[in-house]
């Protein structure tokens, strides 16, 4: 019976009927997974119990999966009946958690956080009950569980009133002798202090919290010192600048000289993050000088200077990676340090360090320096010529990653680096950067020879700013021919199109008539009349761009006719693109220019009469009808209708022949 009812697809899926016998093994695990009568009896709950009674019963006598279910649904019970839930259910949850596994602990942490953050109005007794459970489990032996309860507490602090935080969280924290606590507990104390400090007035923080903060900053374990150090930023913002100068800054200076590199790095990061808060009077001259000297040492950590260059020293791989990370962080924060040191003192105070960062043997450090180069340029202002040499160095870097990072803001960098600040525009008040043009040419050749075509495309995009950076003659003699070469020989379409756009920008800002005419002549010869149909397609791309960059009359004078002549191109793709562009080409022709209108109409009629390619014909008809509706072309509608009727008649004759 079963075989007769199977569909063909089912038959092919299961194979012959004999093969079904092999599937009988499936029954065995199914039988094993069934519950026995005794097990079912254990999982059965009296249906007459209400939700609270059922929760209490399951927490007391249920299986682990039932207890976990109650804990997960605890927020729902609190919303429905908060008084009874806290009187009867929560104490049972506390008993269960005392012996619960990690999964149940994590579920409880999430449920209690939901209750604390919910819009339910909890009385003080309820909040106390939850916080007691949270604080009790902060010392759980499983670090994953203890961290989960800590995150619950930290997230709940935002939703708790100030008095509750002081009574339920801070009072127990301050009453404990910290050194008698475990390292895990002291680390939790650091994070709690960093979180609650913003809830209280600066006077309370100074009186009650700062002694404990100082104690943790001087803890015997470096992990605790580093953790507390990273919380000093929040504490500083909570107590204000005046107290920071007296209370926090000395601790930071001491931590920055700690024997443990982890602590020193934490101190350095904290100081950098706080620089924006400090006014010019925050540091004494001695502290100011100490910080800058310390920063300079970090920039060269793990390196030795020979003949003015940074050379790597031999260290174990792990230590070498740590040193590189420190130097990379220094490079990232260099603009902030320039601001701190005063840009007017850059040459005497930070230039050698910046040059060292730009020449760092580690690629990631140089890449980071390149990514922030434009920020340093903006800060230096009229003194930007100090780092012209480093700009050339990064442009000529051996790593394409460094060049890629520099390209993200290269246009802004070049314009600021070559401007005297006396106006903008092509060839106005430009500052000459030695070796800039050779460096740009070398960078483009390096990108072109790599497999990373997106870097090449990005560099060509940056080239569009060159008319505002270097002279027209430099562009004409060093870059025009290269753009033609990329357009005609490169195999990547986005790169070709970006080279076309850059070529159009160069032409737009060229002020010498002879050079312009030569360029236009070369465009027509190598692109519009090029032997490769790819070149002719790029000419049509160029037309689309020049319509936006040049005036309509200039486009019609120099570019329109060669485009329309492609109506006879032997390659269908070229004719297809021309059809697609017809409305845009028509939009640049003035209504009074009868000659060009006739040329366009002739182009359309020629395509309608001769075109055989199916895709081109479909596109042509759509475009022609669009032009006709707008009244752009006359005398074509009759031809189009005649062509359609002839095509229909030919189709009818063909059908009749087939029937015969």
Automatic annotation (TrEMBL):
Top-level taxonomic group: Eukaryota
Residue spans of the HEAT repeats: 209-247, 248-286
UniProt-listed InterPro entries: ARM-like, ARM-type_fold, HEAT_type_2, PPP4R4
Alphabetical list of PROSITE patterns matching this protein: HEAT_REPEAT (PS50077)
Gene3D superfamilies: Leucine-rich Repeat Variant
SUPFAM superfamilies attached to this UniProt entry: ARM repeat (SSF48371)
One function term, GO molecular function aspect: protein phosphatase regulator activity
One Gene Ontology cellular component: cytosol
UniProt-recorded name of the protein: Serine/threonine-protein phosphatase 4 regulatory subunit 4-like
Origin species: Cyprinus carpio (Common carp)
């Amino acid at each position: 019976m079963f075989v007769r009812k199977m569909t063909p697809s089912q038959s092919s899926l299961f194979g012959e009927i004999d093969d079904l016998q092999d599937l009988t093994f499936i029954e065995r695990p199914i039988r094993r997974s069934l519950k026995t009568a005794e097990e079912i009896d254990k999982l059965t709950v009296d249906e007459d119990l209400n939700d609270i009674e059922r929760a209490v019963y399951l927490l007391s006598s249920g299986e682990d999966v039932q207890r976990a279910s109650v804990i997960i649904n605890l927020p729902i019970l609190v919303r429905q009946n908060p008084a009874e839930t806290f009187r009867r259910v929560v104490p049972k949850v506390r008993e269960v958690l005392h012996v619960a596994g990690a999964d149940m602990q994590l579920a409880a942490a999430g449920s209690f956080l939901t209750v604390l953050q919910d819009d339910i109005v909890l009385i003080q007794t309820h909040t106390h009950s939850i916080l007691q459970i949270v604080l009790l489990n902060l010392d759980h032996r499983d670090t994953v569980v203890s961290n989960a309860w800590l995150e619950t507490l930290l997230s709940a602090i935002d939703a708790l009133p100030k008095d509750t935080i002081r009574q339920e969280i801070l009072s127990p924290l301050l009453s404990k002798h910290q050194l008698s606590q475990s390292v895990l507990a002291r680390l939790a104390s650091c994070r709690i202090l960093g979180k609650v400090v913003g809830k209280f007035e600066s006077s309370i923080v100074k009186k009650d919290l700062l002694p404990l903060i100082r104690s943790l900053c001087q803890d015997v374990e470096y992990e605790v010192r580093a953790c507390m150090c990273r919380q000093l930023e929040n504490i500083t913002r909570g107590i204000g600048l005046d107290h920071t100068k007296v209370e926090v800054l000395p601790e930071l200076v001491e931590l920055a000289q700690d024997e443990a590199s982890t602590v020193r790095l934490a101190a350095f990061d904290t100081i950098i993050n706080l620089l924006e808060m400090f006014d010019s009077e925050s540091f004494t001259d001695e502290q100011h000088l100490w910080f800058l000297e310390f920063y300079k040492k970090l920039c060269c950590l793990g390196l030795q200077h020979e003949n003015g260059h940074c050379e790597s020293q031999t260290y174990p791989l792990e230590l070498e990676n740590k040193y590189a990370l420190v130097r990379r962080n220094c490079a990232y924060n260099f603009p902030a340090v320039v601001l701190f040191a005063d840009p007017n003192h850059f040459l005497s105070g930070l230039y050698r360090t910046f040059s060292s960062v730009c020449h760092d043997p580690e690629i990631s450090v140089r890449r980071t320096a390149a990514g922030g180069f434009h920020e340093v340029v903006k800060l230096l202002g009229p003194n930007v010529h100090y780092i012209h040499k480093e700009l050339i160095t990064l442009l000529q870097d051996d790593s394409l990653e460094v060049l890629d990072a520099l390209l993200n803001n290269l246009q802004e960098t070049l314009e600021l680096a070559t401007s005297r600040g006396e106006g903008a525009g092509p060839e106005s008040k430009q500052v000459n950067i030695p070796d800039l043009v050779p460096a740009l040419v070398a960078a483009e050749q390096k990108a072109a020879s790599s497999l990373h075509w997106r870097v090449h495309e990005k560099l060509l995009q940056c080239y569009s700013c060159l008319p505002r950076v270097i002279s027209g003659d430099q562009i004409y003699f060093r870059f025009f021919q290269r753009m033609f070469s990329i357009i005609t020989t490169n195999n990547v379409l986005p790169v070709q199109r970006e080279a076309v756009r850059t070529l159009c920008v160069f032409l737009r800002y060229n002020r010498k008539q002879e050079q312009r005419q030569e360029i236009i002549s070369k465009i027509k010869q190598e692109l519009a009349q090029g032997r490769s149909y790819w070149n002719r397609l790029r000419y049509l791309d160029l037309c689309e761009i020049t319509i936006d960059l040049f005036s309509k009359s200039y486009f019609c004078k120099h570019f329109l006719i060669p485009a329309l002549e492609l109506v006879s191109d032997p390659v269908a793709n070229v004719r297809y693109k021309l059809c697609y562009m017809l409305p845009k080409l028509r939009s640049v022709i003035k209504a009074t220019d009868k000659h060009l209108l006739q040329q366009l109409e002739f182009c359309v009629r020629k395509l309608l009469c001769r075109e055989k390619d199916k895709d081109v014909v479909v596109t042509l008809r759509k475009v022609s009808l669009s032009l006709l509706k707008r009244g752009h072309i006359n005398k074509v509608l009759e031809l189009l209708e005649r062509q359609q009727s002839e095509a229909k008649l030919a189709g009818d004759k063909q059908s009749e022949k087939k029937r015969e």
